[in-house]
Amino acid sequence: MCILSFIFSTHKPFALEGLFMLLTYIAAYFITLSSIQTRKQQRILVYVIISTAILISIIAILKQLDINPFPWWDYPGYNNSFAGPYVNRNHMAGFLDMAIPMLTVLFITRQRSLEITTGMILVIIFLLTSQAFTLSRGGWVSTITAILFIAGVLLAQKDYVHKKVILTIGISVTIISLFILSSLPVVQRITTLTQQDPVDTLSSRIRCWQGAIDQIKENLMIGTGPDSFAVEYPAYQLPGYAVLFRYAHNDYLHFISETGILLIPIMIFTLFCFFRSGFQKLTSHSRQKRGFALGAMAGVFAILIHSFSDFNLNIPANALLFSILAGIAVQDSMKSHNKPISQA
Question: What is the span of the domain harbouring residue 285?
């Protein structure tokens, strides 16, 4: 569909870039499937994801303290929000949406010493605190939804023997999250949905979505071409704003406007196959395989929720992580160094 949309697009340079980025994400997905063949390799990949989340949180803290040692991540003209290396705090929140579930499922992949377990709990608290400080409504909702997804799946398994532990962890995470959020201007952030920055209000996003829907209607079958939204949308933006929207603030509307209405059944079918394959992995005899598949599904589910109100999948770092998590969730060819993972 993207190739067809590219062929008929009147914005060839943008469409070519969008097509190239899509191929990059597809390559990342298949590289994950083909190169992560052992239990150790999968653990290393998950540790890299978690370490990256910790790193961007540390960068955000340093920038808040005006001691950022990385000047290339300073963005003059943008507010000094808790965004780390990102321009927008919502996109840092999107990365944390996907990373926090992967850290959470480490508790169920193997038995660990008290010291390591305590350290993992502290890291979870740190990342939840970072997520709270982003003040991203979509990030809060998506992260909580991902944790509930994990808890719900585990509690629904009849043969899962640690349901009390999951309930305890779930209640603890909820209490910690509420405590963290209660220390921040969360109430003000929620109750001023229509009084914030004119580009970041509920009403502005609804009007942006209306313009995107008009764009879809005018280019129903093949869209305007990959990555062409920013140059095509100004003709459809509703009057009343001094700023032109470069993204639809809804990844679904954004991608449909670029590639056509047939993307809807393709997305539905793809997600159905993805979650069906992911849930099949939960029957594996390997706790690690079950845990990482569950965490990856939860991370994907979180960003899919967040994508209803933002454009995280248009941000290369987040789209890349999304592709890698998809590979982790459906991968079924992993082996240990000496024997199949199902026998480990």
Answer: 2-343
